[in-house]
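Narrative of accomplishments. A recurring question from our advisory board has been how the design workflow behaves on a single, concrete structure rather than in aggregate. To address it, we present the structure tokens for one chain from the evaluation set, followed by the sequence designed for it. No filtering or post-editing was applied between the two.
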């Protein structure tokens, strides 16, 4: 009996396009002799909850899941039903997974202590990003950051476990519920994207080693409040128009970020005279995407400094965000600095 050896074309790579997320996590874990599997488990828990939220999102119009929940969250924003459903689903998966001791969520005023003294990790999460787009069938997302607790296991969680700068993240990512559903994440060793195959209930590697183009011609900003922007930013936008760059703004941070990550571009949610800290939240929006952007060769600042170096002072603190292709973010920063220097010297 003859035995034929199977030699897949790219056998040199342990994983290739089409590898399941589970397998990819396992392979990556094996690359770290000291890895003990807890972080891998959290990534699996997040993937599981994402599958459930994906199902709810897809049938939002049918199952009376759309619309307001009838309560406001700590940001004073009206919660959508899907905000609350997603929050419950991720919280449940992270609790059941058993590796997390505390969760910071956009939808909860306080830190959620999961009463799990053996949990080594803290998760900050925006369960449903782009809430204003839920009812109009436009792409929405989930954003997550993972940190290792800094206080000893078995002790009560302390503020220092939660208030860690983004440069302490051990993993971060997002889920995009769009025409297809994708999970994109980093553990500090590059960025990989997985596409969900609903009929098989699996995420498959579809975008290995994602790299942001160094430059681009897409700018994403809500110009509705342009008259409240600082002059440096107004000048930068004029420059983009002069160059006939494409203006693209979905109004879902995850979707705008993802497009620009693939095609090259800059997303800006600036400080305005009305909101001096902008709108987006540092702990569960900006930090995660900044980690991804940097790992993909892009850049993320608040207009003046690196997002990942901001020392958090409050759970739901906001930050201006300039994120995307390196050259574009650098240039936008340059415009801000010039104008600011001029206004200071006047
Ligand atoms: O309507 P605006 O002011 O442009 O804000 C849109 C931004 O607000 C957000 O919806 C805020 O996120 P949430 O939906 O999670 O609150 C971002 O996704 C989006 O980029
Ligand atoms: Mg959000
Ligand atoms: Mg949200």
């Amino acid at each position: 009996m003859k035995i034929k050896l199977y030699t897949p074309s790219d056998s040199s790579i342990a994983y290739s396009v089409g590898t399941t997320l589970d397998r990819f996590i396992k392979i990556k874990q094996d690359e770290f002799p000291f890895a003990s599997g807890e972080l891998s488990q959290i990534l699996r828990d997040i993937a599981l909850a994402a599958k459930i939220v994906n199902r709810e999102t897809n049938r939002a119009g049918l199952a009376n899941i759309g619309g307001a929940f009838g309560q406001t969250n700590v940001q004073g924003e009206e919660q959508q039903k899907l905000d609350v459903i997603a929050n419950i689903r991720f919280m449940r998966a992270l609790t059941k997974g058993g590796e997390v001791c505390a969760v910071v969520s956009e939808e909860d005023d306080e830190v959620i202590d999961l009463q799990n003294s053996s949990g080594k990790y803290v998760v900050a999460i925006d369960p449903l990003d782009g809430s204003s787009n839920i009812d109009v069938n436009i792409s929405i997302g989930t954003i997550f950051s993972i940190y290792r607790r800094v206080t000893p296991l078995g002790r009560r969680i302390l503020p220092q476990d939660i208030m860690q700068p983004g440069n302490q993240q051990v993993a971060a990512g997002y889920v995009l519920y769009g025409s297809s559903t994708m999970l994109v994440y980093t553990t500090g060793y590059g960025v990989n994207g997985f596409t969900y195959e609903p009929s098989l209930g699996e995420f498959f590697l579809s975008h290995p080693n994602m790299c942001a183009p160094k430059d681009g011609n897409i700018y994403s900003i809500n110009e509705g409040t342009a008259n409240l922007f600082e002059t440096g930013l107004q000048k930068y936008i004029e420059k983009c128009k002069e160059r006939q760059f494409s203006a693209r703004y979905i109004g879902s941070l995850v979707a705008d970020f993802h497009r620009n990550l693939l095609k090259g571009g800059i997303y800006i949610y600036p400080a305005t005279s009305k909101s001096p800290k902008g709108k987006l939240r540092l702990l569960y929006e900006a930090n995660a995407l900044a980690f991804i952007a940097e790992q993909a060769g892009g850049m993320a600042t608040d207009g003046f400094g690196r997002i990942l170096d901001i020392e958090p002072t409050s759970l739901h603190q906001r930050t201006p965000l300039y994120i995307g292709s390196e050259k574009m973010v650098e240039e936008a920063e340059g415009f801000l600095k010039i104008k600011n220097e001029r206004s200071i010297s006047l």
